[in-house]
Design goal:
Blueprint: H1 2-7, H2 16-19, E1 26-28, H3 33-43, E2 47-52, E3 55-61, H4 62-69
Parallel strand pairs: 1-2
Antiparallel strand pairs: 2-3
Amino acid sequence: MSKIIAVKGDLEKTTAKEIMSTPVVTVDKDIDAEDALKTMAKSKVRRLLITDKGKIVGIFTTSDVIKLAQ
């Protein structure tokens, strides 16, 4: 959201590429939650794309981490 606000331009003309985070960090769907958390910390990201045979199948987020901790 902060990147969208920072654009201060016409959102209809702003492309995803202009505001997306890079590099995109991915992990395989079979990774355990602890290793996913370590990857997030090491990569300094709040979201991981989850892949299955190279295809994106989901997203693991900091919100998911909070749910696990409850």
